[in-house]
Amino acid sequence: MAGCEGSARLRGQQLNTSIEVQVTPRLVRAALTKARRTGAYWKLKPAERAILVLASRLNYIRSPVLLDSILSILEKVWPQKALVIRAYEAGLRYISYKVGLALRLGARAAAEGLLALAGDARRVVLVGLSYLNTPSFYRVVL
């Protein structure tokens, strides 16, 4: 998964809110293999099958449209992995929100601690899962 390098700058007190999860061809190939083994490959539309096959041959996926389509296909083929990716994105957004809040309140030590937390992918996923499992009434809009 993508790291959180440079997600917040403490000196300028600005946050980089664009969060990119890297979908690698290796992940797409694994999803393609899983789809073929479980039979979910034949339940996909022909265009979705073509996207999976062709994206597995790419070196790097940069297009946001292609990335979104691959993630939607991944939800159909491999829901557990799609949940982890969504939790990672939500965790990074939540941590960046909390870092911004800490900086606005003047708590630089708390912001640095949160940035250290953002460096560990497992903890980011845990924060994201806790955010996703929070009822929408109590959620902070990110």
TrEMBL record:
Protein's UniProt name: Uncharacterized protein
Organism field: Infirmifilum lucidum
